[in-house]
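Hi V.,

You were right to ask for the full record rather than a summary. Here it is.
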Amino acid sequence: MKISKYTKLGALIIFSIAVFIWGINYLKGVDYFNTNTTYYAVYDRVDGLMKSSSVTLSGYQVGQVKDIRFSDKNDGTLIVSFSLEGDMKIPVGTEARIISSDIMGTRSIKLVLNPNNSYYSEYDTIPTSVEEDLKEQVSMQVLPLKNKAEQLLASLDSAITVITYVFNPEARKNLSESFAHINQTIVNLENASAQLNYLLHSETVDIQTTMANFNKLSSSLASSSDDFSAIAGNLANITDSISAVNLKEMFSNMAESSSGIKEIIAKVNSAEGSAGLLVNNPELYQNLTQLSLSLDYLLKDIRNNPKRYVHFSALDFGKSVYINSDKSSASANSEYTFKVHLISSSERLNLNNELFVNFTKVEETEISGVYNYSIGNTSDIKEIYQLLEKAQKVFPDASIVAFKNGHRVKLDKALRKINN
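Predicted structure:
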């Protein structure tokens, strides 16, 4: 079939329109032939950022700005959407910073990466910041110089004003009057000195009376010298009593007692003796705790099943109770579960670490920045003790932790509950 020239012309026009539309959108940053990932960023100001502005990472363009619009909150903030080429992912904590890409002030977005193993999803909002442009930086550098220049000009203006005022005829007249007032002040001081001299002469009698009173006081003190001697004697007796005490021997005994206490504390800290082992050896404490629990369990078993340990009885009540036969099944259905805590670390450990090679189903929990690793999750106390014995060969500080309905509880409380 022959295709008419009008059909060819129409196809050419349609193709040209499609290429034109694709080219315009490509310049806008929309490429229909590539898979792009879109993210959002919120800014208080964009400082000249436009659609199709570049998005760079380490100086390399990885995307373009698609759209800039005001937010629906009507608070003046701007929402910028930008797309990255391909399926590129942005780590959590990465910052989208508006920067000047050249000396002319062209603005672009620079991705400041934050190394992280988790990533933002498409259409997530990225943290933002705006870098000061060259004009603002120059202004910040020049502003202190401007302030100092203004202060200097103000000081010069004040100095010139003072000089002008001093050499003013009126100011010279005021200075002359001031010197006249100073002379008058000196004359007043001379008059005051004369009046003071007259006052001293007139009050000579009162001064002599005061001196006589001082003489009487000194005489009274002289007559009381015997009393002062008695007080001094009493003080001497007190000092003699203190000196009679053998202070050297007393301090020597205190020093010996202190050294003995230090030796005891040193032995305890060095794990010497039973007290030192109990304080410094957590494994001994764990063994004593387990021994106590085992003895409690044994006494309950003897009380409930005497025939297991005593083979004769004066009375046969026809009842035999064995707590071991169903204890594991009862504990398996208990609301309490147990785990073996292996180790805690401030840094995250790989579960494939060689430390955990002998253990299966190692669980990791993070509490307040501390990573805890444990194994086992069972209500069977016998099974958890076997796991503990195995774990302590690799982790000497391993211990049993108890949980009730998913919440951690004290171990002794859980053991008392499941043994009752």
